[in-house]
Design brief:
The protein is of the alpha+beta class. Helix content is about 15%, strand content about 30%. It has a seven-stranded antiparallel beta sheet. A four-stranded antiparallel beta sheet has the order 5-6-7-8, with no helix packed on it.
Length: about 325
């Protein structure tokens, strides 16, 4: 995983008031709860005393602390142990009795954690600015037994459409791929990719990215590091996926169909449901193939023979490797 990044790890509704939620994300066990101000707290889900899971303990002091179910040690939002019952209330708690606390944010219907170094100031969340509050959405989740890099690359693959999605978004057997054209965002935290696929007449040669015509910029993909993707179907309709790393071998998908075409309450819900069901069908066409790819994790240098149509994947791999090297020196 890329360090020093904000990761969306849960939807907001998955952490209700008064309940501890234990999950595995980024190969680490974490516990979440809300304090009396409804703020999200996230700690490493392991008591420093004897290693018990805090997530099966209880919330104390109106949400200000969590109590270990084994010996009653309590931890505040910073991860500091506030009391060791066996030592008595009057005994000071040694500084070493502390678990890791993850900085958190809550926005766009997600709970985010900062996975990396402690900073005096954190960068903004890596969401898509063009998805405003006028959009409504419906969410679907499922887990794939692949590394999150493999799952992401599938959504950057513009060559597979007429084969994997022959009866859905790949209808028409448009196998010849013009481009793709990739442009990095100004803030260097993501990129856009355009492609234009046509039927192969046996005479046409694909345009290179440098030759890509402006009028071919019809549909495009957008990706924001470390793990957010969207397909711009239209100005008022999007498919969005947060590829959440569970561990090295599993990825949790939060897929949303966003739209602001229809805003009448009941009709809006129906349109969102239809959009979600259609997206699920397409997603499962992908899953059937992607879970067979080897290895399940991708790297910059692999035993693959890549082609021009793989340009977005190559760009993603290079930039991802650069970010990993930047933050692990």
């Amino acid at each position: 995983m890329i360090p020093n990044q904000w990761y969306a790890v849960l939807e907001s509704k998955e952490v209700p008031r008064g309940k501890l939620i234990g999950i595995t994300r980024l190969s680490e066990k974490m516990v979440f709860w809300r304090n009396k101000k409804n703020e999200i707290i996230c700690l490493k889900d392991k008591c420093v005393h004897r290693g018990a899971a805090l997530s099966i303990g209880k919330i104390c002091q109106d949400g200000e602390t969590v109590e270990c179910p084994f010996h009653g040690l309590q931890y505040d939002s910073s991860g500091r142990t506030t009391i060791i019952p066996a030592n008595g209330k009057s005994s000071p708690v040694p500084e070493r009795f502390k678990v890791h606390s993850y900085p958190t944010e809550e926005d766009h219907g997600f709970i985010w954690i900062w996975w990396g170094d402690t900073l005096s100031e954190y960068p903004p969340l890596p969401f898509f600015e063009d998805i405003d509050k006028k959009f409504s959405y419906s969410t679907y989740t499922e887990v794939w037994p692949v590394h999150y890099s493999r799952a992401i690359e599938n959504q950057l693959d513009v060559v597979h459409l007429p084969f994997v999605h022959y009866n859905t978004i790949g209808r028409g057997h448009r196998t010849l791929v013009h481009g793709p054209l990739v442009e990095e965002m100004e803030d260097k935290r993501g990129f856009l990719a355009w492609t234009y696929n046509v039927k192969d007449d046996g005479k046409t040669k694909p345009f290179t990215p440098q030759e890509f015509p402006e009028d071919f910029k019809v549909f495009h993909l957008t990706f924001r590091f470390p793990h957010l993707w969207q397909l711009n179907l239209a100005t008022k309709a999007r498919i969005f996926i947060a590829f959440v790393p569970v561990d090295e071998n599993n990825t949790l998908f939060y897929m949303r169909f966003y739209q602001k075409l229809v805003r009448i309450p009941l009709l809006k819900t129906l349109v969102n449901w239809i959009g979600k069901k259609s997206s699920i069908k397409i997603l499962h066409q992908d899953r059937r193939v992607v879970i067979t790819q080897q290895p399940i994790k991708t790297e910059l240098q692999m035993e693959e023979k890549l082609i021009q149509g793989d340009i977005p994947i190559v760009f993603y791999r290079k930039r991802r490797q650069e970010l990993i090297e930047l933050y692990t020196k």
